[in-house]
Amino acid sequence: MKPKIVIIGHSFTSRLGLVWALAGLDCEIIILSMVGPNPKGPGLETIKDIDLYSKYVSKVHFFGKSEEELMQALEKCKDPGRKVILIPDSDFSSCVIDEHREELEPYFHFPYIKNGGTIKDWNDKGKQKELAASVGLNVAQSVSFFTQDGKYVLPDGIKYPCFPKAQSTILGGKRGLERCDNEEQLHNLIRRMCREYDLQVMVEEYLKIEKEYAVLGFSDGENVIIPGLVEMLVSGIYRPGITKFGRVSGLEGFEDIVLKFKEFVRKLGFVGIFDIDFYLSSGKLYFSEINLRFGGSGYAITKMGVSLPAMYVKTLLGDSLDGMARTIHCNKTFTNERLCMDDWYRGYETTRQYFHYLRTADIRFLQNPEDKGPGRAYRRRFLKNWVKRTIKRGLGRLK
Predict the structure, then answer these.
(1) For residue 58, what pLDDT is reported?
(2) Rounded CA separation 321/305 (Å)
(3) Confidence of residue 116 (pLDDT cuts 50, 70, 90)
């Protein structure tokens, strides 16, 4: 019987990267797509997204961003004849699954922390930084505080310039992430951050970032595999902090810090796929955060011949990883077409810049000669956006 795999997430680019990474396993793939409310009426918006045109996707279920709706969607994925493998592709879904692990364990395989604690606990950047420092990684100095109903008290010890962020990615996501040069700027940013709900805010010392990197890997709780390095060359503008154009390479020159990353993951006791962000400042490499899920640039690693999602699935099924590639030995550039189109459509970059990224990248996240449906769907969306953008710009000139 074929393995049954359920991919859960909100980004079609990231979900599709997971689908293509698993395509060689001869498995049944189901997508759980997290969507928002339909502005045209009650229910969910169920427009067929780009990854759902893949020939490797057998079924899709839609759910809203609530714990109850995700659990209802998972109920549809149970199979009495076998355990189903879950691949959560967002912090929200990974935490919900982990919090319901006793209820889900008879029916599903999923990522977990074997040393105690929960995935939700380890989404706390303060806790991550404590563990990182314990294995010898450099971390930025920081202080933290809570907001309640928009009210808060700044703690002592904040030095300017500073860099505030949400301490947990589950509620706060990428809120903040702006340099503040004085207390007035910090107050203004925090008010925007906590406008919708209460947050724990971390305020870090501001370190000028010279380069941003990530490593992606897989851990079975004891053995940690990190095959290569991702370097951000250009960040998204509409979606800041996500790599729009980057480079994937081997680990030459980064061996020491990768050993510390492996020790970090072993101490954490995580079983699953992960992504660690770090950066270079004043000649020193600093730990930023770990995401206990597949990173947004993970497909670049897959295209270099190393399938971390396949390692995860085979391990949970009790299969050997013998013969699977585990290291990357060359360099290639990549681009995330979704981020390119987002920035182009909203006027942050020109049409020439948009096509420059697509032409010069060795790897594109929505093109696969073995599975052409998503690429065709992406081109249709681009043409629709071209018409909308042209009309919008034309109307703007008439004002």
Answers:
(1) 95
(2) 14
(3) confident
Whether residue 174 contacts residue 320, with contact meaning beta carbons closer than 8 Å, is answered with no
Nearest to 16 by CA among 371, 397, 264, 344: 371
Q: Averaged over 54-61, what is the pLDDT?
A: 95
User: Distances from the Cα of 53 to the Cαs of 26, 60, 335, 372, in angstroms?
Assistant: 18, 11, 20, 9
Question: At 282, is the secondary structure helix, strand, or coil?
Answer: coil
- Smallest CA-to-CA distance from 161 within 98, 206, 106 is with 206
Query: What's the pLDDT tens digit per position in 271-330?
Result: 999 999 999 999 999 999 999 999 889 999 999 999 999 999 999 999 999 999 999 999
Q: What is the dihedral of CA 47, 51, 53, 54, to 10 degrees?
A: -160
CA separation for the pair 253, 257 (Å, rounded): 9
Task: For tokens 């000139």, name the residue.
Answer: 397
pLDDT computed for residue 302 by the predictor: 97
Q: Give the start-end residues of each E strand in 182-228.
A: 200-205, 211-220, 224-225
Tally of CB atoms within 10 A around 53 = 19
**Cα–Cα distance between 281 and 164 in angstroms, integer?**
17
Bin 43: left if φ > 0, else alpha if -120 < ψ < 50, else beta.
left
**Integer angstrom CA distances of residue 302 from 145, 233, 259:** 39, 19, 22
In the predicted structure, residue 175 carries a pLDDT above the cut 80: no
pLDDT reading at 399 higher than 80? no
Half-sphere exposure of 333 (CA within 13 A, CB side): 14
Beta bridge mates, 272:
219
Note whether 273 and 293 are within 8 A (CB).
yes
Pull the structure tokens for residue 107. 């029916």
Which DSSP category does 52 fall into?
G
Check residue 36 and give its pLDDT.
64
DSSP three-state, residue 234: strand
Cα angle 65, 68, 71; round to 5: 100
pLDDT of residue 206: 93
With 60 as the cut, is the pLDDT of residue 40 above it?
Answer: no
**Percent of the chain residues past pLDDT 90, beyond the cut:** 79
- What global pTM score does this model have? 0.91
* DSSP per residue, 343-378: HHHTTSS-HHHHHHHHHH-SEETT--TT--HHHHHH
